Amino acid sequence: MQFFSIGIARQNCQHKDQLLRRLKYNIPAGFEIIENDQKDISYINLSSEDKYDIHELVDIKDMLSHGIGSAFAQFLLYDIKKELIDDIIEREYFYFDDDERVDILKKSIEDRVDYDDRKWAAYIHGRFTEFFDENRQLSLEGFVRFRLKEYLDELEYMVGRSVDELLIDKEYNEFIRLLQYFVEIQEPKIEEVHVLLEDDEKYTLLDGGYRVINNDMLEDVAREISDNEISDDDLLISSLITIAPNKIVIHDSYKIKNTELLTTIKNVFCGKVEMKN
After folding, report:
1. pLDDT band at 225 (very low <50, low <70, confident <90, very high)
2. Do residues 218 and 239 touch, judged by C-beta distance below 8 A?
3. Long-range contacts of 79-82 (CB under 8 A, 24+ apart)
4. What is the pLDDT of residues 255-275, one digit of tens each?
């Protein structure tokens, strides 16, 4: 007796072995898996030669539904999640170059913010159980597309967030290159600068002889920026760019909580920054 049949489009036949492995591990004992390849569709049929009375049949169908649902959840969450994400990228973000699409894919796969495997496993399992109550034949592609819309929406959201991160990274890198250019075209006003973070969270800049750098110079920087809300971190970056030293020594760097600030300084002044703890 055939209980259930799963159809997979031949162009996706590479997924069949992965799904078969999950099914063999999850379906109840006594069931046989029979493969039947047609021209356009490859079928996985689940059948049993055992005979069941009406009461046993209800129980065995419940067990089979649970087993196939578990197999589908594992298959979609762990075996073809990468392919589903890649399809979204190719369809929605085709205008990015190959390296950028690879980066988006990597970020999306690694994205664990607000993502709960158990939640989505329960969702996929539940959607399959609903389907199994009324149907005995399933198209893998149709089931994913029409019955798992919330899961696909979640993957699209993850991809969109990864695209936003990529664009932010691109803008940051362009900003760093611009600052590097400003530094490169200037003659150093002071050869060596020492940066100290004072107890009031403000920075003091010293020259190579450990003398405080002329405050007039730093005040000129602040006036040029002409922003009353400028932070001490931004003022430090602007001051260093204006001075354009060949060496920067940051003392007690562990006290600086803004690690992005340290990263930016190191990126702008490539090979010229020394951290001292």
Report:
1. low
2. yes
3. 79/15, 79/18, 79/19, 79/22, 80/15, 80/18, 81/109, 81/155, 82/109
4. 898 999 999 999 999 999 999
